Here is the input.
Amino acid sequence: MSKQFDSLIIGQPSLDINTDHTGHTIREIGGAVVYSGFAAAALGHPICVLPKASSGTIDLAAVFAAAKNVEVQALESPQSTSIENIYHTADKERRTCRAVSRIAGYTSADVPDINAKIYHLAGLMRGDIGNELIEFAEKKAMVAVDVQCLLRCADEKTGEMSFHDWPEKLAMLPKIRFLKTDAAEAEILTGSKDRVEAAKMLYGWGAREIMITHNTEVIIYDGKTIYAEPLKPRNLSGRSGRGDTCFSSYITERLTKDIPEALLTAAALVSLKMEKLGPFNGTRADVEAYIKEFYR
Here is the structure.
């Protein structure tokens, strides 16, 4: 019998070039698959990742070497993804992004036969994850989608990235069990600046459990109740990867926990992660201690 994973995360790491509002630049390996994989695995969930990169520029085994409970099934691509991020404010809420290079997009043919409860689709820009892969994943498991990879588009000539609505959203949203957006993405999808109204609209279009992140809080809507937990980081040294960390923690906790408990764990874990550069590699005990000190 094949190994049972809580989540299969499909997405590429990125060679990130991050410049803060003071002009200080650091280079690090980022990407939704990295932050998501580390966070869920740190809570004890068995995770499989399907990262894609050029082995000449990214050592995929090394990227996940420090993660607990993560099995890596590496895919080769002619190029790796590299993204330049320029943050314009101290809170890192405003940034300009440029795709320096990118992978060949995922297709269902890339996905081996993996037994997972959740197929988490975690690309970085439009073209990484297509509608075909959502339809394929729906036949395999509960589908979780971070909508960034369907809204963020890279200019073919300059690499400059901008956000545009998802044309097929009304057809695709009913296939999605867990949907994650941030406040700006929710507005692009729905036209509403009100996060609660946007969550209700996305539910009405078919997604069954919606997470909307904001720099102050995370909300969940399940068609009945709006749940919310504040974010309480003491500094923003590790702001990159906030949404990925929060979403992955939440959806894997939801396999055995109710919404309030899963949301509390995710909000506390991402708050703790935001205090330190890089993906979260603490323990469940660290998160529980943080909850005790700052939340309850």
